[in-house]
């Protein structure tokens, strides 16, 4: 009987260890995902994209023979800065509207239950 209990305990401990490893992996994956989100919003990334966009557009315009490529390349770089600063606000508005619509749809599809008045059994 003791042998069966120890085998069961060993099996449970092994399962516990596997579950702890899985939880640790999920935590690492979650942390990596959070860091990706932070990178996407970081000032460092925005500055790098603006600089590389600007340099690429300057070279592109120069080889196309556009007059004043250094000044004309400011437009796409500026547009990128503008979009990265306004999109988060538009995203918040969109999410709010989406959640409101989803809530209304859910209310419309859920069956209505009318409880008799004075029914105190739900407390």
Automatic annotation (TrEMBL):
Keywords: Membrane, Transmembrane, Transmembrane helix. Residues 102-123 are annotated as: Disordered. The keyword Transmembrane applies. The chain crosses the membrane at residues 43-64, 70-90. The keyword Transmembrane applies. Residues 102-115 have a biased composition (Basic and acidic residues). This is Uncharacterized protein. It comes from Candidatus Dojkabacteria bacterium.
């Amino acid at each position: 009987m003791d042998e069966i209990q120890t085998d069961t305990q060993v099996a449970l401990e092994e399962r516990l260890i596997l579950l702890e490893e899985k939880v640790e992996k999920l935590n690492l994956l979650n942390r990596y995902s959070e860091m990706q989100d932070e990178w996407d919003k970081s000032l460092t990334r925005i500055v790098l994209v603006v600089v590389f966009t600007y340099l690429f557009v300057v070279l592109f315009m120069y080889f196309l023979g556009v007059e004043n490529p250094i000044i004309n390349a400011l437009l796409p770089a500026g547009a990128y800065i503008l979009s990265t600063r306004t999109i988060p606000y538009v995203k918040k508005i969109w999410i709010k509207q989406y959640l409101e619509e989803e809530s209304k749809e859910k209310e419309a599809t859920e069956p209505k239950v009318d409880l008799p008045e004075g029914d105190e059994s739900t407390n």
